[in-house]
Amino acid sequence: MTVAVLVEGLTVEFGRFRALNDLSLAIDYGEVRGVVGPNGAGKTTLLDVISGVSRAKAGRVLFDETMELTRASEAEIARSGVRRKFQKPSVFEALTVRDNVAIGLGAKPGADGPEKVARMLETVGLTSEADRLAGELAHGQKQWLEIAMVVVAEPKVLMLDEPVAGLTDEETERTAALVKALRSPGRAIIVVEHDMDFVERISDRVTVLHEGRTLFEGSMARARADAAVVDVYLGR
Ligand SMILES: Nc1ncnc2c1ncn2[C@@H]1O[C@H](COP(=O)(O)OP(=O)(O)OP(=O)(O)O)[C@@H](O)[C@H]1O
């Protein structure tokens, strides 16, 4: 099976500080991978390198076993189907919900664009809000709208940065169902999140980062039982 994202010996430095330290990991197509760990562990930095926002000092990231993301621009990476939803919702508040999703299709939406948008709105549960202005949506709905804007482009790698931060329990529940609905054999989903119950519900495997390295990789159930993980993260 093809590996969707292969991280090899990745080191990222900010001045003299090592945010990622010789990190290696592999994320398969079809998988939902939770990336967890204490504040400053390097989770966001990892997403930044995969999406071309930050540059590596050493090592590389391969997409689809062929494309070296560590040498590509942000735009090239996005065009190749590696997409990210940032933590803070950044929808276009003065446009309708439907038009926001359409923006996710890019400059050439194609004849089936409107149908793709309609299907996407259905998937994220915003069909009844399609003609409202995005600025009127609740925080949770904005998160789902932004996920729709990213997913409508049919990404092969989907990165979600803290998708349930600030959401109610019910919104978190719906987001978990949504992530499960978005998984597909041709897509890898990477989720950075501090809500461990949410991570457990959606992830096939979790990677626990600590000081820029992998402390643990496996099921969330085993992570909860791992002495080192409890010590640096879960026990706090
Ligand atoms: N642009 C930057 N310049 C300097 N230091 C940075 C920069 N970006 C991140 N860092 C530092 O790198 C370390 C790792 O940050 P990162 O945001 O990846 O951690 P994280 O695991 O996502 O943490 P959190 O859970 O708090 O979001 C932190 O100590 C952070 O202060």
UniProtKB/TrEMBL annotation:
InterPro entries from the UniProt entry: AAA+_ATPase, ABC_AA/LPS_Transport, ABC_transporter-like_ATP-bd, P-loop_NTPase
One term under GO cellular component: plasma membrane
SMART domains: AAA (SM00382)
Entry keyword set: ATP-binding, Nucleotide-binding, Transport
Coiled-coil region list: none
GO molecular function: ATP binding; ATP hydrolysis activity
Span of domain ABC transporter: 5-236
Pfam family, one: ABC_tran
UniProt-recorded name of the protein: ABC transporter ATP-binding protein
